[in-house]
Amino acid sequence: MRASRLVSLVLLLQNRGRMTAAELASALEVSERTIYRDTEALSGAGIPLYADRGAGGGYRLLDGYRTRLTGLTAGEADALLLAGLPDAAAQLGLGAEMAAADLKLLAALPEELRERAERVRSRFHLDAPGWWRATEETPHLSAIAAAVWDQHTIDAAYRRWDGAEVRRRLDPLGVVLKGGTWYFLARPHRGEGRPAPSGPLRPRTFRVSRVCGLQVRDDVFERPADFDLAASWAQWSREFEESRHRLRTRVRLTRRALELMPALSSPITAAGAEGLEPGPDGWCEAELLVESVAVATSEFAAYGPEIEVLEPVELRSALAGCLRAAAALYSR
């Protein structure tokens, strides 16, 4: 750990020029006393490190000195894949590795490219989570990620969507960050009190924030040779979205409703109105897929008088009741 910190200290001075002990301590997350000891060790090892006294002083390297200690460790190489997502790297337990890899990359670049990289960093920032969404607590994320990497089976206590807690033995195959929410794909083991289907078990998707307890086992599983994380996630996402939109409705829409649909409804719902044009009376008819009567009631209420539900009858009644209640509230 100290050897890695000494390399990082040299690379910081190489990339940024003169830095004070306080600045170095903050960047390396150590005390100033540790920085004093480290700089003495580096000087004793022959690194041309100088301390400038006074108010504008600090530590610097001899002009023209460049270290060649830029080889990446395995963890730092892994962190490069998350270079645009520092928060994600930190949640996965790779924050320190990513910072060290970043320093080494900058040190290895010629000066003009290093300046360009710094300009890019100062001008572009990626913030993955959506608006008005609190970050979920994922205390078991780094352990799950390590189990994915090392191919270790895990025993997980998992809270289902209905609040029931179940226990699962799983072979974790991959981790996915979707809109600020972490998921992992895993192959369940047979048994566990459930009927055992014939044939190979298909990987399932789990939300990391719902893992209540976790034990990483010593067992090492064999990863399926044909498993493709990106393709599996895309298939599950498509099936998940389609499974939520099972209620078929028939509605009338104004031009204003057609304009509002991309903003007020899901892409699957909005797909039913693509390419439509209102007739001479200003209305057009469409068949839209929605999740349920309850979801569609609140969703269609946002359109106000720009939409009329024709079928099913229970949705028409529910929407009419919702709008009547709103009208009564505001008529007082």
UniProtKB/TrEMBL annotation:
Provide an example Pfam family for this protein.
WCX
Keywords, A to Z, come to: Transcription, Transcription regulation
On whether Transcription is a keyword of this UniProt record, the answer is: yes
Instruction: Return the Gene3D superfamilies for the record.
Output: Winged helix-like DNA-binding domain superfamily/Winged helix DNA-binding domain
Q: Which organism is it from?
A: Streptomonospora halophila
InterPro entries on file: CBASS_pafABC_assoc_protein, DeoR_HTH, HTH_11, PafC-like, WCX_dom, WH-like_DNA-bd_sf, WH_DNA-bd_sf, WYL_dom
Q: What superkingdom heads the lineage?
A: Bacteria
Name recorded for this polypeptide? YafY family protein
Residues annotated as coiled-coil are: none
Which lineage? Bacteria, Bacillati, Actinomycetota, Actinomycetes, Streptosporangiales
Question: Which positions fall inside the HTH deoR-type domain?
Answer: 2-57
